[in-house]
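Tokens in:
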């Protein structure tokens, strides 16, 4: 096990743990070195360790888009028998899901599910099988996640 100490200058947080990294604190980061490690080279024993300047283990093309992520209010709200439409935009090509969630937190419909390219979209919400009540709609696309409230009134 290799332990490296770093002084950080930006606030950060370690995911999945209770420990919090505060500004300008010495932080110990653990990294297990394998024989085929693409980021760390051990030469001449454990005292000569080099971290490569650029480390790429898994790479994919990311196309930068002028479109920002967004999730608009459903129109109309409350939604009647005619249904409703949700407009949203995707900023990066990614797996995108739009879910309708009931008050118990259960997904009751998934009108959008698939990899989408950057752009602006709209989805018709199927309410025929849903009873009147309060629901939420949630979009998850790459790093973006947002949720809004909708009311179905038949």
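Residues out:
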């Amino acid at each position: 096990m290799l332990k490296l100490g770093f002084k950080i200058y930006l606030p950060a947080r370690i995911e999945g743990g209770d420990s919090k990294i505060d500004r300008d604190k010495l932080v110990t980061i653990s990294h297990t070195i394998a024989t085929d490690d693409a980021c760390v080279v051990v030469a001449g024993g454990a005292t000569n360790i080099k971290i490569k300047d650029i480390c790429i283990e898994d790479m994919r093309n990311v196309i930068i888009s002028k479109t920002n992520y967004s999730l608009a209010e459903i129109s109309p709200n409350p939604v009647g028998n005619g249904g409703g439409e949700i407009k949203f935009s995707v900023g990066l090509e990614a797996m995108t899901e739009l879910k309708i969630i009931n008050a118990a937190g259960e997904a009751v419909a998934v009108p959008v599910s698939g990899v989408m390219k950057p752009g602006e979209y709209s989805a018709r919400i199927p309410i025929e099988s849903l009873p009147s009540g309060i629901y939420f709609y949630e979009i998850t696309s790459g790093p973006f996640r947002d949720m809004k409230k909708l009311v179905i009134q038949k």
